């Protein structure tokens, strides 16, 4: 969270990823390259099966590339670490036997080696940031899906990672809650200016959340294009310019022929 704007944090260089199913080894991504800079809201966008979630897991250190390199602050990623924290879409990522406050404070004590008082203070700070300070002593089963995701985001931000990784975190929410959570995320970013790497298959969500978008082709994922925020309108999701941006990205994602190496 201490990254200065414009400083390169993540460097993904020619990364190819594979996984094994029952029949064979499947290539998930092929020679994907991009950089993420301090305070970026960087979105990996592509259809289901293009390898974007697999790529996120590799950046988190859960999967090793078969080719290429992933570096954070100039150092090759060799495994998971508190400098990269992941928020998944599942609502059950919070241990049910711990209160909301304990869910946030416990990893701070373990990974960041904070005292009990320090961990509690930081946990309360980020609970307040997501508007859930009044639910500190509640248990996860009493919360709605959106509230659980806000707790998961607070827990991730409290770790103060170099990069916050989010893997389709709002996909399981209803449309209204999803839109509200997107707005909440942007509000949090305005206050904290953390570096975000966000995975989605929704073009609209990518346009709302991101200031940079990397388009990945259908399986296996290859870079189709990289777009910067000046290429679309943030005025309104009902705005003609916004709809034109959606149509343009849809064309780039699904056009036939050779991959596009475009930067807008």
UniProtKB/TrEMBL annotation:
<dbReference type="GO" id="GO:0016887">
    <property type="term" value="F:ATP hydrolysis activity"/>
</dbReference>
<dbReference type="InterPro" id="IPR003439">
    <property type="entry name" value="ABC_transporter-like_ATP-bd"/>
</dbReference>
<keyword id="KW-0472">Membrane</keyword>
<keyword id="KW-1003">Cell membrane</keyword>
<protein>
    <submittedName>
        <fullName>NitT/TauT family transport system ATP-binding protein</fullName>
    </submittedName>
</protein>
<keyword id="KW-0813">Transport</keyword>
<keyword id="KW-0997">Cell inner membrane</keyword>
<dbReference type="Pfam" id="PF00005">
    <property type="entry name" value="ABC_tran"/>
</dbReference>
<dbReference type="InterPro" id="IPR050166">
    <property type="entry name" value="ABC_transporter_ATP-bind"/>
</dbReference>
<comment type="similarity">
    <text>Belongs to the ABC transporter superfamily.</text>
</comment>
<dbReference type="InterPro" id="IPR003593">
    <property type="entry name" value="AAA+_ATPase"/>
</dbReference>
<keyword id="KW-0067">ATP-binding</keyword>
<feature type="domain" description="ABC transporter">
    <location>
        <begin position="12"/>
        <end position="243"/>
    </location>
</feature>
<dbReference type="InterPro" id="IPR017871">
    <property type="entry name" value="ABC_transporter-like_CS"/>
</dbReference>
<dbReference type="GO" id="GO:0005524">
    <property type="term" value="F:ATP binding"/>
</dbReference>
<dbReference type="InterPro" id="IPR027417">
    <property type="entry name" value="P-loop_NTPase"/>
</dbReference>
<keyword id="KW-0547">Nucleotide-binding</keyword>
């Amino acid at each position: 969270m201490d990254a200065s704007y414009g400083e390169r944090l993540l460097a993904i260089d020619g990364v190819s990823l594979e996984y094994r199913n029952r029949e064979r080894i499947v290539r998930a991504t092929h020679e994907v390259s991009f950089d993420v800079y301090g305070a970026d809201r960087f979105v990996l966008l592509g259809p289901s099966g293009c390898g974007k979630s697999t790529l996120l897991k590799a950046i988190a250190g859960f999967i090793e590339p078969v080719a290429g390199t992933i570096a954070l602050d100039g150092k090759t990623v060799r495994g998971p670490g508190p400098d990269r924290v992941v928020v998944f879409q599942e609502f059950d990522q919070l241990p049910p036997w711990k209160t909301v406050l304990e869910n946030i404070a416990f990893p701070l004590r373990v990974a960041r080696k904070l005292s009990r008082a320090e961990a509690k203070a930081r946990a309360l700070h980020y609970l307040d940031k997501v508007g859930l300070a009044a639910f500190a002593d509640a248990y996860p089963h009493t919360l709605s899906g959106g509230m659980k995701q806000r707790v998961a985001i607070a827990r991730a931000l409290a770790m103060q990672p170099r990069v916050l990784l989010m893997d389709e975190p709002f996909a399981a929410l209803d449309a209204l809650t999803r839109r509200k959570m997107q707005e909440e995320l942007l509000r949090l970013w305005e206050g904290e200016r953390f570096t975000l790497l966000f995975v989605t298959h929704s073009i609209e969500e990518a346009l709302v959340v991101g200031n940079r978008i990397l388009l990945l082709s259908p399986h296996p994922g290859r870079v189709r294009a990289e777009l910067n925020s000046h290429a679309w309108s943030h005025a309104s999701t009902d705005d003609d310019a916004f709809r034109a941006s959606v149509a343009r990205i849809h064309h780039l994602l699904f056009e036939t022929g050779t991959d596009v190496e475009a930067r807008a």
